[in-house]
Every structure is written in C-alpha cells, then in structure tokens.
Amino acid sequence: MVKNPIMVDPDTSCSKLAQIMRDNKIGSLIIEKDGKPVAIVTERDLVHRLLAEGIDPMTCTAAEIYSKPVVAVSIHADVDMAVDIMNDYKIRRIVVVDDKDKVVGILTTDDLARQLREMSEDLATKYVTMTRS
Predict the structure, then answer these.
(1) Distance between alpha carbon 73 and the CA centroid of its chain, in Å?
(2) CA 123, 125, 131, 133 torsion-angle sign
(3) How far apart are CA 126 and CA 133, in angstroms?
(4) Which of 3, 36, 57, 115 is most open to solvent, judged by the fewest CB atoms within 10 Å of its CB?
C-alpha cells in the first residue's frame, strides 16, 4: 500500500496532475474537496479522457477527467475483501481509509502482486525445508 497518497484540488490543471505523477513516480492522485476524497485521477484517465480526446492539458482541470465516486476500503479489511471490491468495480487501485474516513493509503494491483510473490517465495522455502528434513 502506498501510504499518505498525494491529494489535490478538483481545480488542479491536468498538466499539473501529470507533472505531480511524473515527479513522484506514481500512477494516481486523489481529488479532495473540503478534506474528503471525492474522486481519483489515474494515468489511464489522462490518456483516455484527455490526450485521446485532444483536450488541452493546460486548460483542462481534474474535475473534467476524474473517476468518481472514490471506491474505498477500511484499513481493517482483509486482502480478500479489497480484491473482491477491486474486481467488482473493475479497478486497479482502491483508496484505504481509517475509522474516521481519513485517507491513509492506496492499495494497487502492483502491491498485491508483490505481496503474492513474497508469499509464494516464503511457501517455497518452507516446502523445501520440510522435504529435506
């Protein structure tokens, strides 16, 4: 999970969104209004809703291309629940919130893949250790 994700205003220019993503090596930004997450902008949004449509990134704002509503999961949810929600909504990123609905992170499919690889390696090591005993 990416902790403390960057949150921006809906009036942020699309050009600025792209710069923030590039500079921070991230693929999404949470759009906030009055301190609450209201939407998310992803690299895919920039490509499909901005560039492919020929919209000027200097005049376009996040509000014109973001994905809404924000799909979120509790920090207390297990991985299975997060994956099920991501599959149900066909999304690659899910916002993680605390008990007060404050954004604490974003869980991505890349995060899940890394975790799965680590779990697989741990299981393989345990299996090899058991079979040699």
Answers:
(1) 12
(2) negative
(3) 11
(4) 3
Domain residue limits at 43? 2-132
Peptide bond into 69 cis (omega under 30): yes
Summarised one tens digit per residue, pLDDT across range 14-31 is: 999 999 999 999 999 999
How many domains, in total, are found in the chain? 1
CB 10 within 8 A of CB 38: yes
CATH number at residue 38: 3.10.580.10
